[in-house]
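>> received
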Amino acid sequence: MKRFNYLIFMLFCYTLFISDALAASVSMWPSSSTAVIGNSVTVTASVNSSKTIFFIEGSLVCTGAGVNKTQSLSFDNNANNVYSKTFYLTVKPTTTGKVTCKTKNLKVLDALKDGWQNVSNKSVSFNIRAKSTNNNLNSLSIDGYTLDQEFNKDVFDYSVTVKEGTEKINVNAKVADGNAKVSGTGTLDVSEGVNDIKVVVTAEDGSKKTYNIKVMVLEFEPIKVNVLGNEYTVVRKRKSLPSVSEYFTENTVTINEEVIDSYYYEYNATSGASCRRNRW
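>> returned
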């Protein structure tokens, strides 16, 4: 019986010893396990105790990837009702590599002991990478229509013809890199004639790449003319006219009682006769 009581007593003492030894601890974590050069990362250190914390001493040090920064972990509790204290250290890496943060000389004075209690130091690390330069698309499309050629990330100019009366189209684009951003997509307004759509991809490092789509909205009743035995379709709107020489000037012509935008050019033939020419 005495032996049994002795074992009970020893187990009780051992339990008290373990409880005493584990009365205070520290946990640490970074705001991101992988960060980008130039972006801030905050490291959190939380000191915890099973008894009221009176004082904390120590430091938190982060080094690597261009970082060398220290945060004091000193704390003086006058309220006597604190069981946990959290500290923060924010760093901004300037090179690629790894940042390691660790506590140093951490100790706590709490209600469980008469003297300072050393706390096991902890460390955390996180990797630093360069900003991505990838500003490519993986796909480009318009709902309900097919582009004039299969998409290729290295081909930047596309065209498509849509039916007459179309006022809106939906442009889809998927970036190759999840860190890139894209603009010029979604539901866009278009009008009769040629519409220039620019889809711009911005890489994480800020570099841009533009994919162009010429969207031709067909006319309801196109005007047909015959010139020297050849039939042509008249382009009504000036924005749909092709680029011309600087020697042409803007003009209008009347076809089938409809005024049409055109370019006008007048020149002298070798005979000295004056010739006028419209381009529409």
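>> Helices lie at 2-21.
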